[in-house]
Write a structure and sequence with these properties.
single chain, 518 residues, alpha/beta, 6-stranded mixed sheet, 5-stranded mixed sheet, 14 helices, 28 strands, 27% helix, 26% strand
């Protein structure tokens, strides 16, 4: 028989085929409604008795519709939001790190109203060390073949979330828990699959390290050291992966519902052993939106569009960013405005930020919620971090390590920050500190003429840095950051902050460039 897995991940609340940049455009090649159509089509093709449908999380946060749903006073929006995911017909799911962004009450409602079992092996109750929600595993039988499903998420969630969002929870190694449960489940099933909101720290084929091995992604370790696993249904890195290696089928379906991942196992009818396995990605752009999903979220979407067009503030002059890449390398008024806002809220000495969106355009004179969410789509909080001048210099040096010169002497980002997954949201720039970086020099020795208010940075002096909680808690492999250095955390998200900052008084946008890479 043929056993088919259909897998989604990282839809990030994009229900309909729109990214909300243009309110008239509903032709984008993304969205849960297209995912649903693709899954239902494949399910009909192979027969429901041969298909298992899974999802690996990051559903609650990321789209303007998700932000609007969270902004509502009750759970009526979240109820519809959850209904849309239920309509897809999942057999099992696990959570992603961004599903914790809106706190535990919000998450609990979502879990409780999911029709599919939530499988969770490594998010534990801190006191009892047992899974804090969901089931440890599920066994699904298809045509006499028993399939075991485990579910895990990246253990790095505490590095990114404020403590009140994960209070009472303990996140442990995905590898260790899969190793433990694989021993228990494998003897009971013919096929063992793992839903993992996490990716690969090394290339699955060559084993070459693709990022520091700090535990955020443990896919390669699971692949190579837990032979009981037949299928890895992954997410988190927003990669498009489909391959078979080391007797294991591996898939990851990209971002925002751009694809559905498919694993096909050819299983011997008598022995129930896997004879052959194959994988592919099904682009959802080739499928019309599922009218049932569209109908469920129709009013949510309509109200989201109205919500997005609310004018928030009037600026005396625009604060544009010509394009994300140029802004990172040369600076832009919008980046300065974001830094100015972070300094205003924290009263810090220095601010750090990344360009958070590849489609960021900055602000015109009239600023709407749509502008804010398109330029800063993450549900981060703002922190103030206490550092010495020496520690701050190390952080700035690390950011300069992202860059290299090509054969023509042009500054560009190292390939490892572009592929296999673009990670330029890790590249921070700093303000109002002035600095230059000589990219021809060795990493760690690049920063030149580093001054604050006209004075050189003092290695032994204490400085306060304004930065989002993702970075302050260690996100991005930076040196020097740690939870104990966080001096304060602001209980507002960036939409709230922009709204308050841009309306508190007349804002003068700083248009000067304070850093240079050469």
């Amino acid at each position: 028989m043929k056993l088919v897995f259909l897998h989604s991940s990282d839809t990030h609340g994009f229900m309909l085929p729109t990214d909300y940049q243009n309110k008239e455009n509903y032709d984008a090649p993304i969205g849960l409604s297209r995912v649903s159509s693709a899954i239902k089509s494949e399910k009909a093709k192979y027969g429901a008795d041969n298909v298992i449908v899974t999802d690996a999380g990051d559903c609650l946060q990321g789209s303007p519709l998700a932000s609007y749903t969270h902004s509502m006073d009750d759970y009526s929006g979240l109820s519809k939001f959850t209904d849309a995911y239920n309509e897809v017909g999942y057999d099992a799911r696990c959570l992603g790190n961004h599903d914790f962004n809106f706190g535990l009450d919000y998450l609990a409602y979502y879990i409780d109203n999911n029709k599919a079992p939530m499988v969770n092996d490594n998010v534990l109750d801190a006191e009892t060390n047992v899974p804090a929600f969901g089931r440890e595993y599920v066994i699904i039988e298809k045509q006499g073949v028993k399939v075991g499903l485990l579910g895990i998420t990246t253990q790095y969630v505490p590095h990114w979330e404020p403590k009140e969002h994960i209070e009472g929870l303990k996140f442990v190694s995905a590898f260790e828990k899969i190793k433990h449960y694989a021993k228990i489940l494998r003897p009971q099933v013919d096929v063992l699959a793992v839903m993992y909101h996490g990716g690969f720290e090394s290339d699955p084929v060559t084993g070459e390290a693709t990022e520091p091995h700090r535990g955020e992604n443990e896919g390669y370790k699971i692949l190579t050291e837990i032979p009981e696993v037949d299928v890895m249904l992954t997410g988190h890195q927003h990669r498009r992966l489909n391959l078979v290696t080391k007797n294991t089928a591996i898939v990851q379906p990209g971002y925002r519902g751009e694809a559905v991942a498919e694993v096909i196992l050819d299983i011997d009818d008598d022995t129930k052993k896997i004879k052959e396995m194959s994988t592919k990605l099904i682009d959802t752009k080739d499928y019309k939106p599922d009218p049932k999903v569209v109908n469920i979220v129709k009013n949510l979407d309509l109200n989201t569009q109205k919500w997005l067009d609310q004018p928030i503030a009037q600026l005396s002059e625009p604060a544009p960013i010509e394009n994300a890449m140029k802004g990172r390398l040369e600076g832009a008024p919008f980046i300065n405005l974001l830094q100015q806002m972070q300094l205003w809220f924290t009263k810090a000495d220095v601010s750090a930020t990344a360009v958070m969106s590849e489609v960021a355009k900055g602000f015109d004179k009239t600023v709407t919620l749509r502008d804010i969410l398109l330029n800063y789509p993450y549900a981060n909080q703002l922190c103030r971090v206490k550092l010495t001048g020496k520690e701050l210099r190390h952080i700035i040096e690390h950011s300069a390590s992202f860059l290299e010169k090509d054969s023509d002497g042009k500054i560009k980002f190292l390939d490892r920050w572009i592929t296999p997954k673009p990670q330029l949201y890790h590249f921070d720039v700093f303000y109002p500190i002035e600095y230059e970086a000589d990219i021809s020099k060795p990493v760690g020795e690049r920063i030149q003429n580093l001054t604050l208010n006209g004075k050189p940075l003092d290695d032994n002096k204490t400085y306060y840095l304004a930065v989002n909680n993702y970075r302050a808690m260690g996100g991005g492999f930076y040196p020097e950051y740690s939870v104990d250095k966080i001096d304060m955390t602001l209980d507002k998200d960036y939409v709230q902050m922009f709204t308050e900052y841009l309306t508190h008084d007349k804002i003068t946008v700083d248009t000067k460039k304070n850093y240079k890479f050469y």
